[in-house]
Design brief:
Layout lengths: L2 H23 L23 H4 L3 E4 L5 E10 L5 E8 L8 E6 L3 E5 L5 E5 L3 H5 L11
Parallel strand pairs: 1-6
Antiparallel strand pairs: 1-2, 2-3, 3-4, 5-6
């Protein structure tokens, strides 16, 4: 390496290291380990994705099972925007996925403290809804 390039490279790397240390040296009052938010347990009113995926979805209009949750759609902010429900078919054959707005889903606890998922749609409505296709972009 030529001496001029070596000096320039040293200047850039050295400056970057010094500037990078500014964040380590300065005390902004935040936690030293870099974790400013964490949970030690699930909030009382919270759910794990595992609590919902696979759960039966009931219709509020017909009080019948209309499908089961197969996935959750989460936006860039980390909020659930939709729930993907597998509808129709028999034993998974002929089933299609339909995405329902998270705002249209009602979660409640039954007498046995089990989570009940309800939507304001019947089986025919969901069977005729457009199929959700995962674009696979992430």
């Amino acid at each position: 390496m030529r001496p001029a390039k070596a000096v320039a490279l040293s200047a850039v790397v050295g400056s970057a290291m010094v500037l990078g240390l500014g964040g380590v040296v300065a005390d902004d009052g935040g936690p030293a380990n870099g974790f400013d938010t964490h949970l030690s347990e699930k909030p009382a009113d919270g759910y794990h994705a595992n609590d919902l995926i696979g759960k039966s979805v009931m219709s509020t209009t017909e009080d019948e099972e209309v499908g089961s949750i197969s996935d959750l759609v989460i936006d860039q902010d980390g909020s659930i925007t939709a729930v993907v429900v597998g509808v129709g078919g028999f034993l998974g054959i002929g089933e299609k996925d339909v995405a329902l707005s998270w705002d249209s889903v009602d979660l409640a606890q039954d007498a046995d403290d089990e989570t009940v998922v309800r939507v304001d749609a019947d089986e025919d409505t969901l069977d005729n809804a457009p199929e959700y296709e995962d674009a696979g972009t992430f």
